[in-house]
Amino acid sequence: MFCVTLKLRTIFCTFGLVFACQAAMPTLATGTTVRDAAAIEREVGALAAHLSKLCPIADAASQSAFDACRKGLFSSTQLVGALSPYTLWGRQNDLTTSLKDSVLTQLAPEALAGMYMPLFMFDGRYTVSYSAPNDLFLVKLGVGFRNRLQPGQFPYPFWHDANKWSTYENAKAMLFWIDPKTGKARIVQFTRLGEGSPAVPVQSITPPAFDGKWLWTDGEGKTQPAVTLFDGLFDAANPYKQGMDSAYRALALSLRESQCLQCHVPNNPQRANKLVLLQSPAHAAAEIKRLMKQVQLDRMPVDEFGLEESLEPGVKALLLERGKFFEQLVDQAYAWERGQQASSSAAAGSVH
Ligand code: HEC
User: Would you say 35 and 18 are in contact if contact means Cβ atoms under 8 Å apart?
Assistant: First the structure.
């Protein structure tokens, strides 16, 4: 039954009309109903309007527009609800590489919503189609990229790779690949390919030279990129925010000693298909639960062939101790923010 209906759906959909999919909406054996095209279309329409409201077209250098967009997306349950618990993120390099073979980064929703997606401005335009080869809905959202922000506003120097920077800078669409079973995006890409032009005319910049550092200290002694320390997202009065910086720096010593940063860094030296990033406080914060589990279960580190390697007991114990301390601060920092939000909405409520 399932195969027949699925096949039918595929046939309908290869003719390109997304609404034809409704006719043969399959039901999975587990009883899960596959989302029909009309439901996806409705959800996507609402999401596109939401994104363009929170992150409208602005000057590509505007810090205030970026800050407002970032805060909005980071706290948006609608956006987080549209993403998978680990969503794959990356460039669309050409129109022929299959999704399966694309090199992508695994990002938790808070990392995507707090650091990557706010770098884009949304013009509210969107299209929805169904990709039969991938069995995913493809949503294209019209975007422009904030290429003229200060270097510390990017989660890492995208310009370490000229082609990567150029794709970001000239991006004109964000692609959400939506799983019909969950209605959530499994993959989000940005692209300079296809028809149309970026939502804002691009004034290219020459980015700074990349000196090999994913984290650096600026002239005022501040850790950069500032966005990786939740600057502008967490309140400056958050008592745990500062501690996360030093706790991460201690953890990073262990990550380096345990070879983790030979693989889990943006230039992806091992060419992992689904890269996990650990090179900054915010990236590690989003991965800390998985990180602790992998080390506790001796699943990480691995060697260049992917075979598990054991850590010396002392090295492992210190890594776990530093990881635990960092994890506690991250949890406390989030809890403090939630407490602030709850008390400010209670205060707002009491006015009426
Ligand atoms: C030789 C390269 C290499 C080294 C060294 C390495 N990893 Fe990994 N790690 C990988 C690859 C490859 C994956 C799988 C990603 C994928 O799905 O393609 C992975 C996956 C992970 C994941 C995600 C696991 C999940 O739940 O899916 C975590 C967390 C992680 N590594 C942490 C670490 C930590 C911590 C260290 C150091 C103790 C480490 N890794 C060392 C290559 C490496």
Answer: no
* Block mean pLDDT (10 aa), the chain, length 352: 32 34 40 73 96 98 98 96 97 89 96 98 96 94 98 97 96 97 96 93 94 95 95 93 95 97 96 96 98 97 91 97 98 95 80 53
Residue owning tokens 């345990």: 258
Q: Which residue has the tokens 């691009």?
A: 202
Ligand 1 is surrounded, with C-beta below 6 A, by 258-260, 262-264, 270, 272-274, 276, 287, 290-291, 294-295, 300-304
Going from the Cα of 11 to the center of ligand 1, the distance in angstroms, rounded, reads 39
**Hey, whose CA ends up nearest to atom 7 of ligand 1?**
301
Residue type for position 195: E
In the prediction, which pLDDT does 345 show?
A: 81
Alpha-carbon dihedral of residues 304, 305, 310, 315, nearest 10 degrees?
A: 10
State the Cα–Cα distance between residues 42 and 343, nearest whole angstrom.
34
- Residues with Cβ within 8 Å of 197's Cβ and at least 6 positions away in sequence, in order, are 172
CA 204 to chain centre: 24
Q: Which residue has the tokens 């890492």?
A: 156
Ligand 1 atom at minimal distance to the Cα of residue 301 = 41
d(C-alpha 249, C-alpha 48), whole Å = 38
How far is C-alpha 116 from the geometric centre of its chain's CA atoms?
A: 6
